[in-house]
Amino acid sequence: MADVIRRHGYEAIDVRDIGLRTAQDAVIAQRAQADGLCLITGDFDFADIRNYPPHLYAGLVVLSLPSTATAAYINQLVDQFLAQTEVVQQVPGQLAIVDRRRIRLRR
Fold first, then answer.
1. Residue 98: exposure state from Cβ atoms within 10 A (0-12, 13-18, ≥19)
2. Best label site of 57, 60, 64, 84, fewest CB within 10 Å?
3. Contact at 8 Å (CB) between 76 and 56?
4. 46 HSE (CA, 13 A, CB side)
5. Alpha-carbon distance 70 to 101, whole Å?
6. How many CB atoms are located within 10 Å of the residue 72 CB?
7. Confidence tier at 45 by pLDDT (50, 70, 90)
8. Is the dihedral angle over the CA atoms 31, 34, 37, 43 positive or is it negative?
9. How confident is the model at residue 98 (pLDDT cuts 50, 70, 90)?
10. Dihedral sign from CA coordinates of 53, 57, 58, 59
11. Whole-model pTM?
């Protein structure tokens, strides 16, 4: 996914590359906050705005993935999302739930 993100002109840091592969969600969220990075994940725990208030982040993007999702499917979904520049520009401070058919934004 990092390559797809970079092709769209954005910085991408994979949790696996910075020693956070097995880190708790809160640790990953703190890192994203501290570095001012948008978090893109398939973990729906990050969609809980009580625990992760969107206004505190440079964006929270949660991918709604089927259990059979492959890396190719995920990359295509991220590519389609990032191609919608008007929507992507609205993501800072919001939660975006992304699936094949739509993108829902919530503050």
1. buried
2. 84
3. no
4. 30
5. 17
6. 8
7. very high
8. positive
9. very high
10. negative
11. 0.94
